[in-house]
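We treat protein structure as text, and this decision shapes the records that our systems exchange. Because each token names a local backbone shape, the row as a whole describes the fold. An entry from our holdings is shown next, in its original layout:
>
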Amino acid sequence: MIPFVRDIQFEYGKVDQVSPLIRRVIANNPGPFTFTGTGTYIIGQGQVAVIDPGPDMGDHLEAILAALEGETVSHILITHNHLDHSPLARPLAARTGAKIYSKPIVAKAQDSDVVTEAGDDEGFQPDVALIGGEIIKGPGWTFEAIHTPGHTSNHVCYALAEENTLFSGDHIMGWSTTVITPPDGDMGDYFASLDAIQARKFSTLWPTHGPAITEVAPFIQAYSDHRRAREDQILAQLANGPASILTMVPIIYAAVDSRLHPAAARSIQAHVIHMVQQGRLNCDGPVALDTVLRLPA
């Protein structure tokens, strides 16, 4: 069972000091993929960095600028290019003169009309391309960019050395599990990224949506265990004989609203692709939703 953290106190448009170095302004874009909305983080005093400016909403831009009155923005850091994270970066850069930092988009054609996320900011490109491992500094604050593929191929988390904390974007969220949707989402990459973050022993995680996660090690372990348990369910279904993702989803997700089953099928697809790559499942041809799957002989 994942020990979800969902209690968050805030007012839209108001800046809150959430740690000695961190302030947060939450955009008024609540929804099924954003929880209460996009949390934009401001780090430092005087000369600051901004993480995930959020959706292209004029009122949110003005709220960020009001929170920054009298200060200089030197860096705009983007975790990934979804519409609830990156679109406001360019307008904010135009108003502040800051450079935008992110890992560039890796274009992968989608093969489904099922909406499982907020959508891609397809025109987004950073001013400074990251690959992971870069150190980004300002007065009193130091970031390390950590490439964390899985949710998207270009997802980056940012470690703040001074507080041993991680801005985890959508890689790890306190209020919900993370959506992994092929082909850009990759379950094998996601497991590896979770392990890499767990090994760093951060004291706090600040997701872009929802409150901070302070019991970091057990939370990440529960996140990983949840994914492993889903794979066990897939294996249990196939122990009864060959089946497809479309036939397994209504059984595995019997307690879930059937309107969510199409999105659930994409998550199962991500697991199945990973398990086929590991040799734990067999199938003929690419893993589609109607591909017949079987256990190895």
